[in-house]
Task: structure prediction
Amino acid sequence: MAKEGHIKVDGKKVQRIDIATHRQLMWWKFRKNYMAMIAAGILGIFLIISIFAEFIAPYSSGLRNTRYLAGPPMSVHLFDAKGKFHLRPFIYGWVNKRDPVTLALIPVVDTSKQIPLSIFHRGESYKLWGLFKSNLHLFGVNEGMVNIFGTDQIGRDIFSRIMYATRISLSVGAIGVFFVFIIGLLMGGIAGYFGGIADELIMRLMEFLRSIPTLPLWLALAAALPRDWSALKVYVAILLILSSVGWTNLGRRVRSKLLSIREDDFVLSARLAGCSDARIIFHHMLPSFMSYIIVDLTVSFPYIILAETALSFLGLGLREPIVSWGVLLYSAQNIHALAEIPWLLITGLFVVIAVLAFNFMGDGLRDAADPLAK
Result:
């Protein structure tokens, strides 16, 4: 549970748990959940990828390797074909040979040619966060291109596209959760604090939204978007669609909590002190159970990410040139493409890892929100 041990306060030995703050108790309990800590570390890696996608990706999302169309992932080696160790990692070169049946060009590994891999490589220019111009990448090669996750049908580097897609998909989740947070707090706060006709109307609205099958509703709303809209307009519209029906769980939680504490002594004291209703709700009542709200929002992340991925996978969500996990998986829905280019499904592995990490961290936060429970 909490961290054991004693410290001295005014010359007296006291247990740390007796003087610890609620945040300290939450942290002590959370870090004992090893799966939650691993999940938090994985999400930290995803966050770094999102922030520094241009630096981590060796190429831009649209750059093509025209000599390596639908090429399989390139392996990075430290030992060559003769078993000799090389301190500097390298990839093998390749040659294009004609398939005798389909007459298509097929990349074939050429073990006689070694291409060293450079760390902090100077390559394609980009603007980090749209502000700072640079050409420094985490890795790259001086000859040709390196495609460690392979290329798609038109020769675009899948690894680079996944790095950029991670930023878009996680930003959809983050901004969507922000809208859910605002709408859920506002609607749940009004319903729980004022009650009466406001509570009835908001609860009926929640029940109506929850009674509609989620996926058909998303499909209908997304299909209504004009096809000639720009990528930015579609991005904003998808965020609003996902948030418009995703706030009900948080709204119900906030309403129930406010109903249970609105007659407590500290709320009555705030009223007698002349505090406004808005101040009582947002400065006194909501902070008393903010840890539970944070847990709900953490669990909402994978919900919104999966929703965006599903819509984009079906061709009704984000569209090129925006690159998200769903957009990348859209190209993998063709059976012929999967048979010929199975490495397109690598994107799905990132989706699974992110969703599991959010769920494990959410479970850890849920347990830590009540640190004194056994």
